[in-house]
From TrEMBL:
<comment type="similarity">
    <text>Belongs to the Dps family.</text>
</comment>
<dbReference type="InterPro" id="IPR023188">
    <property type="entry name" value="DPS_DNA-bd_CS"/>
</dbReference>
<dbReference type="InterPro" id="IPR008331">
    <property type="entry name" value="Ferritin_DPS_dom"/>
</dbReference>
<dbReference type="InterPro" id="IPR002177">
    <property type="entry name" value="DPS_DNA-bd"/>
</dbReference>
<protein>
    <submittedName>
        <fullName>DNA starvation/stationary phase protection protein</fullName>
    </submittedName>
</protein>
<dbReference type="InterPro" id="IPR009078">
    <property type="entry name" value="Ferritin-like_SF"/>
</dbReference>
<dbReference type="InterPro" id="IPR012347">
    <property type="entry name" value="Ferritin-like"/>
</dbReference>
<feature type="domain" description="Ferritin/DPS">
    <location>
        <begin position="44"/>
        <end position="188"/>
    </location>
</feature>
<dbReference type="Pfam" id="PF00210">
    <property type="entry name" value="Ferritin"/>
</dbReference>
Length: 191
């Protein structure tokens, strides 16, 4: 047993700087039985879907907060539920990138550079426009996810294919259905 002559300190080490130990856009070797090329490709596609999903999550929260009109309460709750589900997908996507040896996009400024979902106005749009914006974002992600799922399957990355199909695509399709039904022009009550 060694004893220290310096008493322990509870003072945190502030203002630390460090070297970047893995660059974004690279993959390190992991024993997951996939080629470097397959893992690199999957990480690139997953990071694209991840960036778009983070933006979709943000859109859901924004529209949840600023919802208006006769269906305020129902949509306020629905959008918050969908946001929570999207947030879960963000974590799942990021963990898959890390599992493959990559670096998940996480900084919101970096996400904004990668996403293909257009930025909404800073103010409040009419409810149909907000719902349409969410549907368009879903379609962007679904298009990317379908294409990526097919390609990663060809490369033998069953785990990424499964995530894209069973979680991203199925959740996105279900949420899009719920949103689209709010844009059907039917009377609230019959006279």
């Amino acid at each position: 047993m060694t004893t220290s002559t310096t008493p322990p300190s509870s003072q945190p080490w502030l203002h630390q700087k460090g070297e970047v130990i893995q660059e974004f856009g690279t993959v390190k070797q992991f024993p997951v039985a996939l080629s470097y090329e397959a893992r690199m490709y999957s990480c690139q596609r997953l990071n694209k879907v991840l960036a778009d999903t983070q933006i979709l999550y943000g859109l859901y929260k924004k529209h949840h907060w600023i919802m208006r009109g006769a269906t305020f309460y129902q949509l306020h709750l629905l959008l918050d539920k969908h946001a929570g589900e999207q947030l879960g997908l963000v974590d799942t996507l990021a963990e898959r990138v890390q599992t493959l040896g990559g670096v998940a996009v996480g900084d919101t400024r970096h996400v904004a550079e990668i996403t293909s979902i257009p930025r909404p106005p800073d103010g409040v749009e009419e409810v149909p426009a907000m719902l349409s914006r969410l549907l368009e974002a879903h379609e962007t992600i679904l298009t990317e996810a379908h294409d990526a799922a097919a390609r990663v399957a060809e490369l033998g990355d069953d785990g990424t294919n499964d995530l894209l199909v069973s979680q991203i695509i199925r959740t996105g399709e279900l949420q899009a259905w719920f949103l689209a039904e709010h844009l059907v022009d039917t009377p609230l009550v019959r006279s």
